Each structure stands twice: as structure tokens, then as C-alpha cells.
């Protein structure tokens, strides 16, 4: 099989949630492809410990900076997008930061509902809004790639609060694509399936038994959970010139989970 080899040597890429998991791998693959990468996260170090993403990119010969950001705070997103002006302005905005809170709709605390929606839905809405306005003001349209999920389409046990944020990401992506097309800005999303990261650590034992990893993985036609390495190239494709006629798309990278 041949390989795609996207190059981003003249581009500045922001990756939110870039310290760990999927975002870390996405940031590193953009770094390897020559982009200047702004890694935006609440924390510098990956969740399981280790070298911060921006340092790993620099160690590999790339250019990267860490910008402490809480995506649920619009002022932080504005400061982040402004930080990219030092490198010519953002060309690719990857709105990936997200969190998981499991639990039954019957007893979830209102603060938990508000927190997950402020990070996963509001963070992506304002990440898209601020980046798009900045591109329009600089007259330099680029690409926005959001992280959706199989949960954007499919409900799973005891995670209404999470699934509803990912449903929102799907419609933020589609609606923004519709509105921003006339400005030359493309907006797409990657919808990962079950990916081995530390996101799912908040699941209750009961939920783990009923619906979590084993059962989810069992129904993956390819027979295994995915890895960040499986998912990251989809972000580079959607951000690339080769995807120039692709907008409003949700690209599932799930080993076939959603066709089951
Ligand atoms: P992860 O927990 O490994 O990484 C998430 C990163 O986001 C962390 O570094 C965390 O610090 C950061 N983050 C959390 N809240 C933030 C905030 N308010 N502001 C800035 N950064 C914040 O998880 P992951 O699995 O890599 O998840 C990345 C994205 O992928 C999320 O949007 C998640 O919903 C989505 N996703 C994950 C899976 C999966 O199975 N792992 C499946 C589908 C979608």
C-alpha cells in the first residue's frame, strides 16, 4: 500500500489537549510534517508522565511551544490564537481537548453536566469561532479540525452527558462548515472509536462491566481497540490541501465500529 505524506512546513498548527493521548500524537505528527506547533493544554506533562509534547517535538528537530490553556475559558482561547501571531498566525486549528464524566442521568450533579459541556462543546464552539475570526481578519483562511467521536452518533450506557457534548461537536462542525465556506475556511471532524488513552479512567465499575472496553472492543470488526497513531493521520489529511473539497465531514476512524 502506498502512503500519503502531507507536508506542513509553512504552517502554524494549534492542537488543544495536546499534552496527552490523541492530541499529543496529532501534535507530534504535525511537528514531524514540518509545522510549527502550539500545544495547548491545562498541563504540560502527559497524563501518564513523560516528556512534554512540545519538548518531544523540539527533540525531534521541530518547532513547538506550550501555551497553558483552559478551553472552557474563551479568553484563554483568544490568548492562544494571538500567541500564534508570533509565527504568522494559525493555519490549522485542531480543537481536540476533551474530558469524560460517566454516570447515570438519574443522579449526575448539575456542576458535572456544566463542566463537561463547557470543555467538550463550548471549548470547540469558541475554538472554532476565535480561530475563524482570526483567519478572516488576517485574510489567511485555513482549516479547522475538531475531535468528535462515535458518541456523536451512538449512545452508550451511562454517558448521556458525554454523548450529548459529542453530538454538539458534530453539529458545530457542520454548521460552521456551512457558514465559513464563503471565507475559504474548511471545518471537519475526526470521530475516533475506542482508542487506548487515559480518557476513560472516570467510568464506574458497573459501566465498565456493562458497556466499556471489552464489549466495545469485541464489536470492533477489526478486533482491537485503536491507538492515537491510528487516528492522528486523519487530522493531517483533513487539514491538508488534498482535502481542499472536503468540509463539514465527520471522518470515522474506528476499525469499523459504527458499521456493525
Ligand atoms: P486524554 O485524556 O488522553 O487527553 C485529553 C487531553 O485534553 C489531556 O491532556 C487533558 O489535560 C486535556 N484537557 C482536558 N480538559 C481540558 C481543558 N479544559 N482545556 C485544555 N485541555 C484540556 O484523552 P484522549 O482520549 O486523547 O481525548 C482526546 C479527544 O478525543 C477528546 O475530545 C475525547 O473526547 C476524544 N475521543 C476519545 C476517544 C477515546 O476512546 N479515547 C474516543 C473518541 C473521542
Count helical runs. 8
Bound compounds, each kind once, are:
nicotinamide-adenine-dinucleotide
**pLDDT under 50 segments (min length 5)?**
none
**If you compute it from the alpha carbons, what radius of gyration comes out, rounded to the nearest whole angstrom?**
17 Å
What is the architecture at the second tier of CATH? 3-Layer(aba) Sandwich
| Mean pLDDT metric | 94
CATH class, named Alpha Beta
The chain-level structural class is alpha/beta
Strand content: 5-15%
Series of H and E elements: EHEHEHEHEHEHHHE
Helix content: 40-55%
Please provide the count of β strands. Answer: 7
Q: How many separate domains?
A: 1
CATH topology: Rossmann fold
N-to-C CA distance? 25 Å
The CATH superfamily label reads NAD(P)-binding Rossmann-like Domain
Overall shape: globular
Major sheet strand order? 3-2-1-4-5-6-7
Largest sheet: 7 strands, parallel
